[in-house]
């Protein structure tokens, strides 16, 4: 049965070809596509709008959503719930949590909610969105697609200078100590904050699946976290990054992608990754499975992410940071009694 596929950050390098694949390969589904700026003055939103226009009879809408503001996330979730209840939209078949943020050129950026921006946009806002929309899924369930990276595993990404880890005091993730961060450390610490957000996402995913499996009404919803690969043509390499990385992306990474793939098998284009993400989202790929994937291969995530006690701690703090209570979600039990 078709349903609504909700994609955040839908004007990104990966999402635009993903939307094209969704609307052409699975036309019975309805796409709700969120972007931070829905106006025509955003060149990437215009590209998304043009992509949709090229597909006859596409069932898609573009909606504005700023994940750096949790009150707007709550309002957005409420509007989607209302539209589904009023049958303006079909029930959810999938939520694709594609949006993210990083900054490798300055100290940590804080949102109006008082949280470190990489963690809020990439993780906390999606926690709020997912939990508030669980009750709007189809009776036959669906899928939640979260995004990770090899950066979550210490030593696996060449940009790493400081290894990712979940601190004993998890509040340091949302309110990092930047008082002593030197300008020369901005790149390394910025990448570590990005990697930590990916580690938090995977760790939370395992806990989410346990909660879903225990709830009879929601047990058919499965959550996966995918490392979509190192994308040679991603705009991320040219956004909030040092000049050095910008030129590397243009003159080395993109033109020598095929050679680089010999050293890194996950090196590929955004379009290739977009196809995999959608096939996961609609449950064509690995139907009913849960867990961590590298590309479309079921894989092991880092040892730190696999500890059940750590997963539960991240779950509790994420729910707290997102401001979600039992009244806001269809989950029977959101935190232990």
What does this structure look like?
This protein is an alpha/beta fold and 337 residues long. Helix 1 runs parallel beside helix 2, helix 3 packs parallel to helix 4 and helix 6 packs across helix 10. The strands form two sheets. The chain has an eight-stranded mixed beta sheet, with helices on both faces. It is 39% helix and 13% strand.
Total helical segments? 10
Rg, rounded, reads 19 Å
Low-confidence stretches: none
- Spatial ordering of strands, largest sheet: 3-2-1-4-5-6-9-10
Q: Order of helices and strands, N to C?
A: EHEHEHEHEHHEEHHEHEEH
Major beta sheet, specifics? 8 strands, mixed
Query: What would you call the structural class?
Result: alpha/beta
Strand content: 5-15%
Mean pLDDT: 94
SSE blueprint and pairings:
Elements: E1 4-7, H1 15-25, E2 30-35, H2 43-53, E3 60-64, H3 70-85, E4 92-97, H4 117-133, E5 142-147, H5 171-174, H6 186-214, E6 221-227, E7 230-231, H7 243-253, H8 257-263, E8 267-268, H9 270-281, E9 291-294, E10 297-298, H10 308-322
Parallel strand pairs: 1-2, 1-4, 2-3, 4-5, 5-6, 6-9, 7-8
Antiparallel strand pairs: 9-10
In short:
With 337 residues, the chain is of the alpha/beta class.
Task: For the structure shown, list the relevant keywords.
two-stranded parallel ribbon; 10 helices; 337 residues; alpha/beta; globular; single chain; 8-stranded mixed beta sheet
């Amino acid at each position: 049965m078709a349903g609504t596929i909700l994609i955040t950050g839908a004007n990104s390098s990966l999402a635009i070809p993903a939307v094209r694949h969704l609307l052409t390969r699975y036309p019975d589904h309805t796409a709700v596509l969120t972007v931070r700026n829905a106006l025509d003055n955003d060149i990437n939103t215009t590209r998304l709008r043009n992509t949709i226009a090229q597909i006859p009879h596409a069932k898609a809408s573009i909606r504005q959503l700023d994940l750096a503001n949790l009150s707007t996330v709550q309002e957005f979730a409420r509007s989607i719930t209302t539209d589904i209840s009023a049958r303006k939209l079909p029930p959810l078949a999938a939520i694709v949590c594609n949006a993210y943020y990083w900054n490798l050129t300055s100290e940590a950026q804080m949102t109006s909610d008082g949280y470190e921006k990489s963690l809020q946009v990439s993780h906390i806002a999606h926690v709020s969105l997912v939990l508030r929309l669980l009750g709007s899924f189809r009776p036959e369930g669906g899928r939640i697609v979260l995004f990770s990276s090899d950066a979550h595993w210490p030593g696996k990404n060449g940009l790493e200078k400081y290894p990712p880890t979940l601190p004993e005091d998890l509040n340091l993730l949302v309110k990092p100590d930047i008082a002593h961060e030197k300008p020369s450390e901005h790149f390394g610490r910025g990448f570590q904050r990005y990697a930590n957000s990916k580690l938090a996402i995977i760790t939370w995913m395992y806990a989410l699946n346990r909660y879903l499996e225990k709830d009879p009404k929601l047990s058919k919803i499965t959550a996966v976290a995918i490392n979509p690969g190192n994308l040679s043509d991603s705009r991320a390499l040219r956004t909030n990054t040092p000049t050095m990385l910008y030129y590397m992306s243009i003159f080395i990474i993109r033109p020598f992608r095929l050679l680089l793939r010999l050293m890194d098998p996950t090196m590929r284009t955004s379009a290739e990754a977009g196809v995999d993400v959608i096939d996961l989202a609609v449950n064509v790929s690995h139907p009913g499975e849960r867990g961590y994937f590298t590309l479309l291969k079921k894989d092991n995530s880092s040892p730190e992410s696999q500890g059940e006690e750590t997963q539960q701690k991240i779950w509790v703090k994420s729910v707290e940071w997102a401001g979600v209570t039992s009244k806001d979600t269809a989950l029977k039990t959101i935190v232990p009694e």
